[in-house]
Every structure is written in structure tokens, then in C-alpha cells.
Design a protein that fits this description.
By secondary structure, the protein is of the alpha+beta class. It has 3 helices and 9 strands. The strands form 3 sheets. The protein has a 5-stranded antiparallel sheet, sandwiched between helices. The chain has a two-stranded parallel sheet with strand order 1-9. Strands 5-6 form a two-stranded antiparallel sheet. The chain is globular, with a radius of gyration of 16 Å. The chain binds nickel (II) ion.
């Protein structure tokens, strides 16, 4: 089932999300719906707050984003109650975008390697290291469950440049070709 994506301006995107309890009903179904929603919007990642749920869950699929012949370096995974325990290496810039903030993209500086603990949708626990694009997408989604958005990290000059456009997005005045809703009442 495709869920509506919550656009920039919804308070849920700014909340630190709650852990999911291990008796949460039908977690695999939520994961399935989140993947379906992400694919329908051509995304590589999607987090709980983006579908209006203030829960520590996100899904990632970087397989299609890898260079030809390197698809096996991509990952397709759900991350439940994730905790990034380390970020290392020399920070690098990469242009990010977000399904909740359509039409805006910008360089974000992040470290290239992370260590992360999390559960999958069957409550199997992992402690893993990721790097490059995989780490990048995970860091972006992880920020969502911490109530942070990539536009927070834009350099001051770029921030000024997108300010007006961001306000248009918030008001839902941007054309979007996937299911999204905006918090238009003030
Ligand atoms: Ni995002």
C-alpha cells in the first residue's frame, strides 16, 4: 500500500522518533508499505516520520544507484531502532535531496564510514559498518528519525538561495509527481 509522504512543514519531521516496541503489530507490513511508497516516489530511502509515523524505522535501497557492475555493493534493508555508534573518515560533500522536500537539492558534508546497530523487521540484531553511498543514505535517513533534515546542513549562501523555494515547498506550491501532502494550515 502506497502511503502519503508528509512534506516539509509537518511537525512530525522535526520530532525525535520513538523506538518501536517488540510487540509492534505487523512490522513486516509497515516495512513493505514503506518500500512500496519509496519506490513509487523513485526514492533510495524513506523514514517513518516521512509517512507520518514518529517511529525509529527507515528503509534503504541503494542497489539501483550503484555503478553498472557494482550493484552487489548496494543494500536493500529495513533499519529498526537504529543507533549510529561511530562516524569516521575524512568528510566529503555529496548532493542530497529528500522526498519530503521536493525540488530542492544541495551538497551536504558527512563522514564516509559509519558503524550502526539495528534490528530488521524480524527483530534480528545487526552491528555493521557501511561506507560511501550506503553510509550516506543511511546517515540521511537516520537524521529523519532524529528530527533533522538535510537542508539544516546547507552552507549559509546556499541556505539563502533556497529559502524562498523552501517556503513554496512548505506551502505545497511545488508540483510533485508522487503522493505527498503538505501542512498548509497555519
Ligand atoms: Ni529525506
Amino acid at each position: 500500500m502506497i502511503l502519503p509522504i508528509f512534506g516539509y512543514g509537518y511537525p512530525v519531521l522535526r520530532k525525535v522518533a520513538d523506538d518501536i516496541e517488540d510487540d509492534f503489530e505487523n512490522l513486516p507490513k509497515l516495512v513493505e508499505d514503506m518500500f512500496e511508497t519509496m519506490y513509487a516516489a523513485d526514492g533510495v530511502g524513506l523514514a517513518g516520520p516521512q509517512v507520518g509515523k514518529s517511529l525509529r524505522i527507515f528503509v534503504v535501497d541503494t542497489i539501483q544507484s550503484m555503478e553498472k557492475g557494482e550493484e552487489d555493493k548496494g543494500i536493500k534493508k529495513a533499519f529498526i531502532n537504529a543507533k549510529i555508534t561511530a562516524e569516521t573518515g575524512k568528510a566529503w560533500d555529496y548532493e542530497e535531496g529528500c522526498l519530503s522536500i521536493p525540488s530542492i537539492r544541495g551538497d551536504v558534508t558527512r563522514k564516509p564510514q559509519i558503524r550502526i546497530t539495528y534490528f530488521d523487521e524480524n527483530w534480528k540484531k545487526y552491528d555493521e559498518i557501511y561506507e560511501g553511498l550506503n553510509a550516506r543514505v543511511i546517515q540521511h535517513e537516520y537524521d529523519h528519525i532524529e528530527g533533522k533534515l538535510f537542508v539544516d546542513y546547507l552552507k549559509p549562501i546556499k541556505k539563502r538561495m533556497v529559502k524562498r523555494k523552501l517556503e513554496k515547498v512548505r506551502q505545497g506550491l511545488i508540483e510533485v509527481d508522487y503522493k505527498i501532502k503538505f501542512n498548509t494550515k497555519r
